[in-house]
User: What shape does this take?
Amino acid sequence: MPHPDLLPQQRAAIRHLLDLQHTGRLTRDDKKLVAQGLGCSVKTIERHMDNAAAHGGTYTPAPRRRLTLTPAILDAYGRWRGNMQAAYRDLLQTGHLAIPGQPGRHYSYDTLRRCILDSLDPGTRAGLIAGEDARRSKDLHPRRQRGKRNDAWEGDDKTCNIRVRLDNRAVTPHVTWWADHSTDAICGLAVTPHAPSRDAVLVSLHDAISRRPPHSPFGGAPRLIRIDGGKNFCSAPVQAAMNALGIDLHTLPPRQPQAKGLIEAINKALIHTHLKGLPGYTGPALKKAPRPAHRLEELVSFEHFTHLLHQWVKWWNFDHAIAALRRRTPAEAWEADDTPLREIPDDALYLFTLETEQRTYRLHSDGIHFKGGIYIPPASLNGHVGEHYVIRYRPHHLDRIELCHPRTNRYLGHALLSTATDPEAIERRKDIHRARRRQAASLKSQIKALEKSRVRYAALTEPGTPQRLDTQTPPAPLPDPDTFQPRRTPQLPSHSWSSGQDPAADAPQDDASAKPATPPSPPPRPRQASRKQRRLPPPTPSWSSTDRDGTDGASATP
Assistant: This one.
Protein backbone atom coordinates (compact mmCIF):
# COMPACT_ATOMS: atom_id res chain seq x y z
CA MET A 1 0.00 0.00 0.00
CA PRO A 2 1.53 3.37 -0.97
CA HIS A 3 2.39 5.84 1.74
CA PRO A 4 0.15 8.88 2.07
CA ASP A 5 1.37 12.21 0.79
CA LEU A 6 2.47 14.20 3.86
CA LEU A 7 3.64 17.29 1.99
CA PRO A 8 0.60 19.46 2.91
CA GLN A 9 0.91 18.53 6.59
CA GLN A 10 4.65 19.11 6.52
CA ARG A 11 4.24 22.57 5.01
CA ALA A 12 1.58 23.55 7.55
CA ALA A 13 3.65 22.29 10.52
CA ILE A 14 6.88 23.95 9.34
CA ARG A 15 5.06 27.24 8.74
CA HIS A 16 3.72 27.05 12.32
CA LEU A 17 7.23 26.49 13.70
CA LEU A 18 8.57 29.43 11.69
CA ASP A 19 5.85 31.67 13.10
CA LEU A 20 6.83 30.61 16.62
CA GLN A 21 10.48 31.24 15.79
CA HIS A 22 9.76 34.77 14.52
CA THR A 23 7.86 35.63 17.70
CA GLY A 24 10.57 34.10 19.96
CA ARG A 25 8.30 31.42 21.45
CA LEU A 26 9.81 28.39 19.70
CA THR A 27 11.08 25.64 22.04
CA ARG A 28 12.60 22.24 21.50
CA ASP A 29 9.44 20.62 22.78
CA ASP A 30 7.55 22.15 19.87
CA LYS A 31 10.02 20.59 17.44
CA LYS A 32 9.73 17.19 19.16
CA LEU A 33 5.95 17.34 18.97
CA VAL A 34 5.99 18.07 15.24
CA ALA A 35 8.67 15.39 14.65
CA GLN A 36 6.54 12.76 16.39
CA GLY A 37 3.50 13.71 14.32
CA LEU A 38 5.40 13.52 11.03
CA GLY A 39 7.40 10.40 11.97
CA CYS A 40 10.88 11.94 11.70
CA SER A 41 13.65 13.27 13.91
CA VAL A 42 14.21 16.76 15.31
CA LYS A 43 17.18 17.27 13.00
CA THR A 44 14.96 16.55 10.04
CA ILE A 45 12.49 19.16 11.27
CA GLU A 46 15.31 21.67 11.59
CA ARG A 47 16.44 20.95 8.03
CA HIS A 48 12.86 21.43 6.87
CA MET A 49 12.77 24.79 8.64
CA ASP A 50 15.98 25.90 6.93
CA ASN A 51 14.52 24.81 3.58
CA ALA A 52 11.32 26.77 4.22
CA ALA A 53 13.25 29.86 5.28
CA ALA A 54 15.18 29.73 2.00
CA HIS A 55 11.95 29.43 -0.05
CA GLY A 56 9.90 32.26 1.41
CA GLY A 57 8.41 30.33 4.33
CA THR A 58 7.15 27.33 2.29
CA TYR A 59 8.80 23.96 2.64
CA THR A 60 9.87 22.92 -0.86
CA PRO A 61 11.61 19.54 -1.06
CA ALA A 62 14.02 18.89 -3.89
CA PRO A 63 12.29 17.09 -6.77
CA ARG A 64 13.22 13.48 -7.32
CA ARG A 65 14.64 12.40 -10.63
CA ARG A 66 11.76 10.71 -12.42
CA LEU A 67 10.89 9.63 -15.91
CA THR A 68 8.39 12.07 -17.42
CA LEU A 69 6.00 11.38 -20.25
CA THR A 70 7.55 12.60 -23.50
CA PRO A 71 6.08 12.69 -27.02
CA ALA A 72 8.29 9.75 -27.95
CA ILE A 73 6.91 7.62 -25.09
CA LEU A 74 3.33 8.60 -25.93
CA ASP A 75 3.89 7.83 -29.60
CA ALA A 76 5.36 4.40 -28.85
CA TYR A 77 2.53 3.55 -26.44
CA GLY A 78 -0.12 4.55 -28.96
CA ARG A 79 1.63 2.91 -31.91
CA TRP A 80 1.78 -0.42 -30.07
CA ARG A 81 -1.87 -0.04 -28.91
CA GLY A 82 -1.09 -0.17 -25.20
CA ASN A 83 1.48 -2.99 -25.33
CA MET A 84 3.96 -1.67 -22.78
CA GLN A 85 6.49 -4.45 -23.33
CA ALA A 86 6.70 -3.70 -27.05
CA ALA A 87 6.81 0.03 -26.38
CA TYR A 88 9.62 -0.49 -23.87
CA ARG A 89 11.71 -2.46 -26.37
CA ASP A 90 11.11 0.16 -29.03
CA LEU A 91 12.09 3.04 -26.75
CA LEU A 92 15.12 1.13 -25.49
CA GLN A 93 16.43 0.64 -29.02
CA THR A 94 15.91 4.27 -29.99
CA GLY A 95 17.63 5.54 -26.82
CA HIS A 96 14.66 7.46 -25.37
CA LEU A 97 15.00 5.73 -21.99
CA ALA A 98 18.61 6.75 -21.31
CA ILE A 99 19.17 8.38 -17.93
CA PRO A 100 20.61 11.89 -18.36
CA GLY A 101 24.09 12.31 -16.95
CA GLN A 102 24.64 8.56 -16.53
CA PRO A 103 26.07 7.04 -19.71
CA GLY A 104 25.19 3.41 -20.28
CA ARG A 105 22.21 3.41 -17.92
CA HIS A 106 18.52 3.51 -18.79
CA TYR A 107 15.18 3.48 -17.02
CA SER A 108 13.62 0.12 -16.22
CA TYR A 109 10.33 -1.30 -17.49
CA ASP A 110 8.64 -0.72 -14.13
CA THR A 111 9.63 2.94 -14.28
CA LEU A 112 8.15 3.29 -17.76
CA ARG A 113 4.95 1.54 -16.71
CA ARG A 114 4.60 3.74 -13.62
CA CYS A 115 5.20 6.85 -15.73
CA ILE A 116 2.47 5.92 -18.21
CA LEU A 117 -0.06 4.96 -15.52
CA ASP A 118 0.58 8.16 -13.55
CA SER A 119 0.53 10.48 -16.57
CA LEU A 120 -2.41 9.08 -18.58
CA ASP A 121 -5.90 8.60 -17.19
CA PRO A 122 -7.76 5.33 -17.90
CA GLY A 123 -9.95 6.97 -20.51
CA THR A 124 -6.99 8.22 -22.54
CA ARG A 125 -5.27 4.84 -22.32
CA ALA A 126 -8.42 3.08 -23.47
CA GLY A 127 -8.77 5.53 -26.35
CA LEU A 128 -5.20 4.95 -27.50
CA ILE A 129 -5.82 1.19 -27.40
CA ALA A 130 -9.32 0.80 -28.87
CA GLY A 131 -10.43 4.20 -30.14
CA GLU A 132 -12.97 6.86 -29.24
CA ASP A 133 -15.74 4.43 -28.24
CA ALA A 134 -13.52 2.88 -25.58
CA ARG A 135 -12.56 6.31 -24.26
CA ARG A 136 -16.19 7.37 -24.09
CA SER A 137 -16.97 4.36 -21.89
CA LYS A 138 -14.83 5.93 -19.13
CA ASP A 139 -16.65 9.27 -19.17
CA LEU A 140 -18.86 10.52 -16.34
CA HIS A 141 -22.53 11.15 -17.08
CA PRO A 142 -24.27 12.89 -14.16
CA ARG A 143 -28.03 12.55 -14.13
CA ARG A 144 -30.16 15.55 -14.87
CA GLN A 145 -32.70 16.80 -12.41
CA ARG A 146 -36.20 15.77 -13.34
CA GLY A 147 -37.85 19.14 -12.79
CA LYS A 148 -41.54 19.65 -13.50
CA ARG A 149 -43.75 18.08 -16.14
CA ASN A 150 -43.29 19.47 -19.66
CA ASP A 151 -40.07 21.17 -18.67
CA ALA A 152 -38.16 19.00 -21.14
CA TRP A 153 -39.01 16.32 -23.67
CA GLU A 154 -36.79 13.87 -25.48
CA GLY A 155 -37.45 12.61 -29.00
CA ASP A 156 -35.91 9.84 -31.05
CA ASP A 157 -36.43 7.40 -33.93
CA LYS A 158 -36.37 3.70 -33.05
CA THR A 159 -35.81 1.02 -35.65
CA CYS A 160 -37.82 -1.93 -34.35
CA ASN A 161 -35.89 -5.20 -34.43
CA ILE A 162 -38.74 -7.10 -36.04
CA ARG A 163 -40.09 -7.93 -39.47
CA VAL A 164 -43.82 -7.44 -40.13
CA ARG A 165 -46.05 -8.21 -43.11
CA LEU A 166 -47.31 -5.40 -45.36
CA ASP A 167 -48.62 -5.81 -48.93
CA ASN A 168 -47.27 -9.36 -49.20
CA ARG A 169 -43.74 -8.36 -48.26
CA ALA A 170 -41.71 -8.11 -45.08
CA VAL A 171 -40.85 -4.63 -43.82
CA THR A 172 -39.11 -3.21 -40.75
CA PRO A 173 -41.26 -0.67 -38.87
CA HIS A 174 -39.88 2.50 -37.30
CA VAL A 175 -41.27 4.38 -34.32
CA THR A 176 -40.90 8.12 -33.73
CA TRP A 177 -41.95 9.12 -30.22
CA TRP A 178 -41.61 11.74 -27.51
CA ALA A 179 -41.23 11.23 -23.75
CA ASP A 180 -41.48 13.63 -20.82
CA HIS A 181 -38.25 13.73 -18.84
CA SER A 182 -39.95 14.48 -15.51
CA THR A 183 -42.52 11.66 -15.43
CA ASP A 184 -41.13 9.13 -17.99
CA ALA A 185 -44.45 9.27 -19.82
CA ILE A 186 -44.68 8.55 -23.56
CA CYS A 187 -46.71 11.53 -24.80
CA GLY A 188 -47.09 10.62 -28.48
CA LEU A 189 -45.79 8.44 -31.29
CA ALA A 190 -45.98 7.70 -35.01
CA VAL A 191 -45.22 4.40 -36.78
CA THR A 192 -43.94 4.09 -40.35
CA PRO A 193 -43.12 0.94 -42.37
CA HIS A 194 -39.92 2.57 -43.62
CA ALA A 195 -37.29 5.03 -42.43
CA PRO A 196 -39.09 8.05 -40.99
CA SER A 197 -38.86 11.51 -42.52
CA ARG A 198 -39.92 14.94 -41.36
CA ASP A 199 -43.62 14.13 -41.86
CA ALA A 200 -43.37 11.40 -39.21
CA VAL A 201 -41.72 13.87 -36.84
CA LEU A 202 -44.49 16.43 -37.36
CA VAL A 203 -47.29 13.88 -37.01
CA SER A 204 -45.83 12.42 -33.83
CA LEU A 205 -45.23 15.90 -32.40
CA HIS A 206 -48.83 16.84 -33.15
CA ASP A 207 -49.99 13.65 -31.43
CA ALA A 208 -47.79 14.37 -28.40
CA ILE A 209 -48.83 18.00 -27.89
CA SER A 210 -52.54 17.36 -28.37
CA ARG A 211 -54.29 16.13 -25.22
CA ARG A 212 -56.92 14.17 -27.05
CA PRO A 213 -57.20 10.36 -26.61
CA PRO A 214 -55.54 7.90 -26.68
CA HIS A 215 -52.62 9.63 -24.91
CA SER A 216 -54.55 11.92 -22.58
CA PRO A 217 -53.97 13.27 -19.96
CA PHE A 218 -50.42 13.69 -21.30
CA GLY A 219 -49.67 16.55 -23.65
CA GLY A 220 -49.27 20.29 -23.88
CA ALA A 221 -46.39 22.32 -25.32
CA PRO A 222 -43.07 21.61 -23.62
CA ARG A 223 -40.52 24.27 -22.86
CA LEU A 224 -37.53 22.32 -24.26
CA ILE A 225 -37.09 19.34 -26.57
CA ARG A 226 -33.84 17.40 -26.86
CA ILE A 227 -33.14 15.62 -30.13
CA ASP A 228 -30.15 14.18 -31.93
CA GLY A 229 -28.73 15.48 -35.18
CA GLY A 230 -30.98 13.42 -37.48
CA LYS A 231 -32.05 15.05 -40.75
CA ASN A 232 -35.72 14.46 -40.07
CA PHE A 233 -35.54 16.26 -36.73
CA CYS A 234 -33.38 19.11 -38.03
CA SER A 235 -35.45 19.81 -41.16
CA ALA A 236 -36.84 23.24 -41.88
CA PRO A 237 -40.53 22.41 -41.24
CA VAL A 238 -39.71 20.99 -37.83
CA GLN A 239 -37.59 23.99 -36.98
CA ALA A 240 -40.35 26.33 -38.10
CA ALA A 241 -42.96 24.44 -36.10
CA MET A 242 -40.84 24.62 -32.97
CA ASN A 243 -40.29 28.33 -33.44
CA ALA A 244 -43.99 28.99 -34.02
CA LEU A 245 -44.98 27.07 -30.90
CA GLY A 246 -42.31 28.68 -28.73
CA ILE A 247 -40.41 25.44 -28.10
CA ASP A 248 -36.64 25.46 -27.65
CA LEU A 249 -35.25 22.73 -29.88
CA HIS A 250 -31.93 21.61 -28.42
CA THR A 251 -29.80 19.57 -30.84
CA LEU A 252 -27.41 17.31 -28.96
CA PRO A 253 -23.84 16.58 -30.10
CA PRO A 254 -23.41 13.46 -32.24
CA ARG A 255 -22.51 10.09 -30.76
CA GLN A 256 -23.70 10.98 -27.27
CA PRO A 257 -26.77 8.85 -26.52
CA GLN A 258 -26.42 9.49 -22.80
CA ALA A 259 -27.49 13.10 -23.38
CA LYS A 260 -31.05 11.80 -23.90
CA GLY A 261 -30.90 8.80 -21.63
CA LEU A 262 -34.66 8.55 -20.98
CA ILE A 263 -35.70 7.91 -24.56
CA GLU A 264 -32.77 5.51 -25.01
CA ALA A 265 -33.95 3.56 -21.94
CA ILE A 266 -37.46 3.38 -23.41
CA ASN A 267 -35.99 2.03 -26.67
CA LYS A 268 -34.27 -0.77 -24.76
CA ALA A 269 -37.38 -1.49 -22.70
CA LEU A 270 -39.38 -1.88 -25.93
CA ILE A 271 -36.99 -4.58 -27.11
CA HIS A 272 -36.71 -6.54 -23.86
CA THR A 273 -40.34 -6.35 -22.74
CA HIS A 274 -42.24 -6.44 -26.04
CA LEU A 275 -40.41 -7.17 -29.30
CA LYS A 276 -38.57 -10.29 -28.14
CA GLY A 277 -41.84 -12.15 -27.68
CA LEU A 278 -43.17 -11.49 -31.20
CA PRO A 279 -42.52 -13.61 -34.30
CA GLY A 280 -40.07 -12.12 -36.72
CA TYR A 281 -37.75 -10.68 -34.07
CA THR A 282 -34.38 -9.84 -35.63
CA GLY A 283 -32.40 -8.89 -32.55
CA PRO A 284 -29.33 -10.73 -31.26
CA ALA A 285 -29.94 -14.39 -30.43
CA LEU A 286 -28.12 -16.93 -28.28
CA LYS A 287 -25.20 -18.73 -29.86
CA LYS A 288 -26.47 -22.21 -28.94
CA ALA A 289 -30.03 -21.48 -30.05
CA PRO A 290 -30.05 -19.71 -33.43
CA ARG A 291 -33.19 -17.81 -34.31
CA PRO A 292 -35.47 -19.74 -36.68
CA ALA A 293 -36.37 -18.07 -39.96
CA HIS A 294 -40.03 -17.06 -40.15
CA ARG A 295 -42.06 -17.38 -43.30
CA LEU A 296 -44.04 -14.43 -44.59
CA GLU A 297 -47.40 -15.81 -43.48
CA GLU A 298 -46.07 -16.33 -39.95
CA LEU A 299 -45.16 -12.66 -39.49
CA VAL A 300 -47.40 -10.20 -37.71
CA SER A 301 -49.29 -7.79 -39.94
CA PHE A 302 -48.44 -4.12 -39.80
CA GLU A 303 -51.91 -3.22 -38.50
CA HIS A 304 -51.71 -5.79 -35.71
CA PHE A 305 -48.20 -4.62 -34.82
CA THR A 306 -49.35 -1.01 -34.36
CA HIS A 307 -52.23 -2.24 -32.21
CA LEU A 308 -49.84 -4.22 -29.99
CA LEU A 309 -47.46 -1.25 -29.81
CA HIS A 310 -50.22 1.07 -28.56
CA GLN A 311 -51.18 -1.51 -25.96
CA TRP A 312 -47.57 -1.63 -24.78
CA VAL A 313 -47.42 2.19 -24.54
CA LYS A 314 -50.63 2.13 -22.48
CA TRP A 315 -49.08 -0.46 -20.16
CA TRP A 316 -45.93 1.70 -19.82
CA ASN A 317 -47.87 4.84 -18.94
CA PHE A 318 -50.57 3.45 -16.64
CA ASP A 319 -49.43 0.07 -15.24
CA HIS A 320 -45.62 0.08 -15.18
CA ALA A 321 -44.17 1.22 -11.83
CA ILE A 322 -40.73 2.83 -12.09
CA ALA A 323 -38.26 2.81 -9.19
CA ALA A 324 -36.91 6.27 -10.05
CA LEU A 325 -40.46 7.63 -9.61
CA ARG A 326 -40.69 6.15 -6.11
CA ARG A 327 -42.50 3.06 -7.39
CA ARG A 328 -45.15 5.09 -9.17
CA THR A 329 -46.44 4.84 -12.72
CA PRO A 330 -45.88 7.71 -15.17
CA ALA A 331 -49.61 8.54 -15.00
CA GLU A 332 -49.49 8.81 -11.21
CA ALA A 333 -46.40 11.02 -11.36
CA TRP A 334 -48.12 13.22 -13.97
CA GLU A 335 -51.25 13.67 -11.88
CA ALA A 336 -49.20 14.40 -8.74
CA ASP A 337 -47.55 17.36 -10.47
CA ASP A 338 -49.74 20.45 -10.43
CA THR A 339 -47.62 22.51 -12.87
CA PRO A 340 -49.97 24.32 -15.29
CA LEU A 341 -49.90 23.07 -18.88
CA ARG A 342 -49.66 25.26 -21.97
CA GLU A 343 -52.17 23.85 -24.41
CA ILE A 344 -52.08 24.66 -28.13
CA PRO A 345 -55.31 24.82 -30.18
CA ASP A 346 -55.72 22.08 -32.76
CA ASP A 347 -55.88 24.50 -35.66
CA ALA A 348 -52.52 25.99 -34.72
CA LEU A 349 -50.91 22.56 -34.61
CA TYR A 350 -51.43 22.12 -38.33
CA LEU A 351 -49.36 25.18 -39.24
CA PHE A 352 -46.19 23.21 -39.80
CA THR A 353 -45.51 24.04 -43.46
CA LEU A 354 -43.45 26.83 -44.95
CA GLU A 355 -43.55 28.60 -48.30
CA THR A 356 -40.75 27.57 -50.67
CA GLU A 357 -39.35 29.74 -53.44
CA GLN A 358 -39.00 28.04 -56.83
CA ARG A 359 -35.70 29.70 -57.68
CA THR A 360 -32.44 29.81 -55.78
CA TYR A 361 -30.82 32.95 -54.44
CA ARG A 362 -27.15 33.85 -54.53
CA LEU A 363 -25.22 34.67 -51.39
CA HIS A 364 -23.53 38.08 -51.73
CA SER A 365 -20.86 39.53 -49.52
CA ASP A 366 -23.46 41.60 -47.64
CA GLY A 367 -26.03 38.79 -47.40
CA ILE A 368 -28.95 37.39 -49.40
CA HIS A 369 -31.17 39.81 -51.31
CA PHE A 370 -34.78 38.64 -50.99
CA LYS A 371 -38.01 40.60 -51.57
CA GLY A 372 -36.39 44.01 -51.19
CA GLY A 373 -34.47 43.14 -48.02
CA ILE A 374 -30.96 41.98 -47.22
CA TYR A 375 -30.72 39.01 -44.89
CA ILE A 376 -27.66 38.10 -42.84
CA PRO A 377 -26.92 34.34 -43.13
CA PRO A 378 -25.65 32.25 -40.23
CA ALA A 379 -21.97 32.30 -39.39
CA SER A 380 -21.54 28.75 -40.71
CA LEU A 381 -21.93 30.10 -44.26
CA ASN A 382 -18.94 32.41 -43.94
CA GLY A 383 -16.68 31.71 -46.90
CA HIS A 384 -19.56 30.54 -49.16
CA VAL A 385 -20.07 33.81 -51.05
CA GLY A 386 -21.25 33.03 -54.57
CA GLU A 387 -23.18 29.86 -53.67
CA HIS A 388 -26.91 29.53 -54.31
CA TYR A 389 -29.48 28.42 -51.71
CA VAL A 390 -33.16 27.59 -51.48
CA ILE A 391 -35.25 29.97 -49.36
CA ARG A 392 -38.23 28.88 -47.29
CA TYR A 393 -40.26 31.43 -45.42
CA ARG A 394 -43.53 32.00 -43.70
CA PRO A 395 -45.89 34.25 -45.70
CA HIS A 396 -46.28 37.75 -44.29
CA HIS A 397 -43.46 37.06 -41.81
CA LEU A 398 -40.35 38.26 -43.59
CA ASP A 399 -38.34 39.10 -40.49
CA ARG A 400 -36.43 35.84 -41.02
CA ILE A 401 -36.02 33.30 -43.80
CA GLU A 402 -34.90 29.66 -43.74
CA LEU A 403 -31.97 28.51 -45.92
CA CYS A 404 -31.58 25.02 -47.39
CA HIS A 405 -29.04 23.41 -49.68
CA PRO A 406 -30.33 23.30 -53.28
CA ARG A 407 -29.07 19.80 -54.01
CA THR A 408 -29.39 17.86 -50.74
CA ASN A 409 -32.21 19.96 -49.24
CA ARG A 410 -30.23 20.06 -46.01
CA TYR A 411 -31.27 22.76 -43.55
CA LEU A 412 -28.50 25.31 -43.05
CA GLY A 413 -30.06 27.81 -40.64
CA HIS A 414 -32.06 31.01 -40.74
CA ALA A 415 -31.12 34.47 -41.98
CA LEU A 416 -32.10 37.72 -40.29
CA LEU A 417 -32.80 41.13 -41.72
CA SER A 418 -29.75 43.36 -41.79
CA THR A 419 -31.84 46.23 -40.40
CA ALA A 420 -32.81 44.26 -37.28
CA THR A 421 -31.50 45.60 -33.98
CA ASP A 422 -32.61 42.80 -31.65
CA PRO A 423 -30.00 40.92 -29.56
CA GLU A 424 -30.07 37.94 -31.89
CA ALA A 425 -29.10 40.06 -34.90
CA ILE A 426 -26.33 41.72 -32.91
CA GLU A 427 -25.03 38.33 -31.82
CA ARG A 428 -25.23 37.10 -35.43
CA ARG A 429 -22.89 39.85 -36.59
CA LYS A 430 -20.47 38.98 -33.79
CA ASP A 431 -20.59 35.31 -34.76
CA ILE A 432 -19.71 36.17 -38.36
CA HIS A 433 -16.73 38.25 -37.23
CA ARG A 434 -15.56 35.39 -35.00
CA ALA A 435 -16.03 32.88 -37.83
CA ARG A 436 -13.87 34.98 -40.17
CA ARG A 437 -11.05 35.17 -37.67
CA ARG A 438 -11.37 31.50 -36.79
CA GLN A 439 -11.27 30.35 -40.40
CA ALA A 440 -8.29 32.58 -41.16
CA ALA A 441 -6.37 31.18 -38.20
CA SER A 442 -7.34 27.62 -39.12
CA LEU A 443 -6.18 28.03 -42.71
CA LYS A 444 -2.88 29.53 -41.58
CA SER A 445 -2.21 26.61 -39.24
CA GLN A 446 -3.18 24.08 -41.92
CA ILE A 447 -0.83 25.62 -44.46
CA LYS A 448 1.98 25.62 -41.93
CA ALA A 449 1.29 21.99 -41.06
CA LEU A 450 1.27 21.00 -44.73
CA GLU A 451 4.63 22.66 -45.32
CA LYS A 452 6.11 20.76 -42.39
CA SER A 453 4.60 17.42 -43.34
CA ARG A 454 5.90 17.30 -46.89
CA VAL A 455 8.61 14.66 -46.97
CA ARG A 456 10.15 13.51 -50.24
CA TYR A 457 12.56 10.66 -50.91
CA ALA A 458 14.96 10.01 -53.73
CA ALA A 459 14.03 7.40 -56.34
CA LEU A 460 15.81 4.03 -56.06
CA THR A 461 16.92 1.74 -58.88
CA GLU A 462 18.28 -0.92 -56.55
CA PRO A 463 17.15 -2.30 -53.19
CA GLY A 464 18.13 0.03 -50.39
CA THR A 465 17.01 2.67 -47.96
CA PRO A 466 15.56 5.80 -49.60
CA GLN A 467 17.18 9.10 -48.81
CA ARG A 468 15.10 12.05 -47.72
CA LEU A 469 15.32 14.94 -50.11
CA ASP A 470 14.24 17.60 -47.67
CA THR A 471 17.34 17.20 -45.48
CA GLN A 472 20.22 19.56 -46.05
CA THR A 473 23.50 17.87 -47.11
CA PRO A 474 26.73 19.30 -45.64
CA PRO A 475 28.76 21.46 -48.05
CA ALA A 476 31.72 19.90 -49.86
CA PRO A 477 35.09 20.53 -48.09
CA LEU A 478 37.56 22.94 -49.66
CA PRO A 479 40.82 21.52 -51.13
CA ASP A 480 43.97 21.52 -49.05
CA PRO A 481 46.05 24.69 -49.68
CA ASP A 482 49.23 22.59 -49.93
CA THR A 483 47.87 20.44 -52.76
CA PHE A 484 46.12 23.28 -54.59
CA GLN A 485 47.14 23.33 -58.28
CA PRO A 486 47.04 26.56 -60.35
CA ARG A 487 44.75 26.80 -63.28
CA ARG A 488 46.21 25.45 -66.52
CA THR A 489 47.69 28.16 -68.75
CA PRO A 490 46.40 28.52 -72.31
CA GLN A 491 48.29 26.63 -75.03
CA LEU A 492 50.33 28.99 -77.24
CA PRO A 493 52.01 28.45 -80.62
CA SER A 494 54.93 26.05 -80.50
CA HIS A 495 57.60 28.57 -81.54
CA SER A 496 56.81 30.91 -78.67
CA TRP A 497 57.49 28.44 -75.90
CA SER A 498 59.46 25.54 -77.38
CA SER A 499 62.67 27.54 -77.97
CA GLY A 500 62.37 29.55 -74.80
CA GLN A 501 63.30 32.81 -76.63
CA ASP A 502 61.43 35.92 -77.56
CA PRO A 503 60.28 35.84 -81.22
CA ALA A 504 61.03 39.54 -81.53
CA ALA A 505 64.69 38.89 -80.83
CA ASP A 506 65.03 36.70 -83.98
CA ALA A 507 63.36 39.27 -86.23
CA PRO A 508 65.81 40.98 -88.75
CA GLN A 509 66.78 44.56 -88.07
CA ASP A 510 66.78 45.52 -91.78
CA ASP A 511 64.13 44.51 -94.18
CA ALA A 512 66.62 44.53 -97.09
CA SER A 513 69.01 42.12 -95.49
CA ALA A 514 66.23 39.84 -94.48
CA LYS A 515 66.52 36.47 -96.11
CA PRO A 516 63.79 34.02 -96.42
CA ALA A 517 64.41 31.20 -94.13
CA THR A 518 62.61 28.01 -93.82
CA PRO A 519 60.83 27.69 -90.54
CA PRO A 520 62.51 25.26 -88.24
CA SER A 521 60.76 21.98 -87.83
CA PRO A 522 59.11 21.62 -84.44
CA PRO A 523 60.86 19.36 -82.03
CA PRO A 524 59.42 15.95 -81.50
CA ARG A 525 56.51 16.09 -79.08
CA PRO A 526 57.40 14.36 -75.90
CA ARG A 527 55.25 11.52 -74.60
CA GLN A 528 52.28 12.89 -72.76
CA ALA A 529 52.49 12.27 -69.06
CA SER A 530 49.61 11.30 -66.88
CA ARG A 531 47.28 13.99 -65.50
CA LYS A 532 48.71 13.71 -62.01
CA GLN A 533 52.39 13.79 -63.13
CA ARG A 534 52.04 16.39 -65.86
CA ARG A 535 53.52 19.82 -65.02
CA LEU A 536 53.01 23.06 -66.80
CA PRO A 537 56.03 24.70 -68.52
CA PRO A 538 57.44 27.87 -67.05
CA PRO A 539 56.04 31.08 -68.51
CA THR A 540 57.97 32.71 -71.37
CA PRO A 541 58.37 36.44 -72.03
CA SER A 542 56.35 36.14 -75.23
CA TRP A 543 53.07 35.45 -73.50
CA SER A 544 53.86 36.89 -70.08
CA SER A 545 54.33 40.37 -71.51
CA THR A 546 51.20 40.06 -73.57
CA ASP A 547 49.05 38.97 -70.68
CA ARG A 548 50.44 41.37 -68.13
CA ASP A 549 51.09 44.53 -70.18
CA GLY A 550 48.52 44.06 -72.89
CA THR A 551 51.26 44.71 -75.64
CA ASP A 552 52.35 42.68 -78.61
CA GLY A 553 55.66 40.78 -78.56
CA ALA A 554 57.05 42.70 -81.55
CA SER A 555 56.52 46.04 -79.91
CA ALA A 556 58.47 44.89 -76.87
CA THR A 557 61.76 44.85 -78.78
CA PRO A 558 63.94 47.97 -78.66
The longest helix spans residues 423-453. Residues 71-136 form one domain.
